[in-house]
């Protein structure tokens, strides 16, 4: 199997008066694993269905490899799609379910008859070819032992693997998946995430995967495209999207624990200040800004002159780490979260009611009134330094 690139240029889609996608550009390299991540209703499935040929774009171009496919029917696009519901045929064996796309594509109507079809010229070698393809696919997905069973006799995870097999048997160059793991329990979802990443490495074809679950997106794919309100806000490696969000909406959406949001202000000299922030930097913008700080970037430290005190409102023990909900003593209207390693917390003995914090300047994400990321135009790079104010 070989992957092909997928390119969308200026693609829009409306359903009646409702604009769902707005002049969208997207380029997925051949063999890439890209996840479309966004909240429910942002247009992810519509985008996938446009690539698949199940919907027609209102405007724009779609190409798979070098070929424009806007006018090609779904079955001529060399791609396969798996949905959230497995949609297996319940009365057919796993073997027949997986073989179905090849049977429909390669065998004539007469050749498909179970008994009479065997008498039709050419059907013997065709059946042998299909058997080999099904067995090869079942081997890749490690479901060879399930081939004689009916779907009703399979677990959820096994059914999902059969659905993947049915999609992959025809050797597509692009594989589209729409929330395929959402019906599985947490344990199985984690296992399938690893398996899908491994499957992608082994097959080398292009994967485009739709999800609203940011953990899935961040852990499986090489590229994440964050979508909101029918627009692509940022495309990049998971670490890039997490550590360098270009847009406040991306910063808020991505991350296992929500990012802290603080009000900031840039003064006439271009220096940023805000609750718990020692003024720093030289920004070209002036006026109010929004500052983001991830819970794991809030440093819990020993009290000294440069630290900021906060009252512990609640401590959530997540096993491996503890999430503190805090209220700044200097600015009681500001509540924030700090994530601390559970071992460190246990080493401190009795649960704290009051903590001392530092906000490292390098960890601050600053966004202008339009929600776009601002960068510091300063020769003196922001360093890890204590926040202002004493207790
Ligand atoms: N065939 C259709 N006719 C009318 N409106 C539609 C149609 N398909 C989708 N929509 C609308 O387009 C918007 C985007 O839907 P879409 O299914 O693409 O979103 P999504 O991001 O995949 O959400 P979800 O994760 O909930 O499936 C929704 O408001 C939806 O109601």
UniProtKB/TrEMBL annotation:
This is ABC transporter ATP-binding protein. It comes from Pontivivens ytuae. It holds the Pfam family ABC_tran. GO terms for biological process: carbohydrate transport. CDD domains: ABC_MalK_N. Belongs to the ABC transporter superfamily. The keyword Translocase applies. PANTHER family: MALTODEXTRIN IMPORT ATP-BINDING PROTEIN MSMX, TREHALOSE IMPORT ATP-BINDING PROTEIN SUGC.
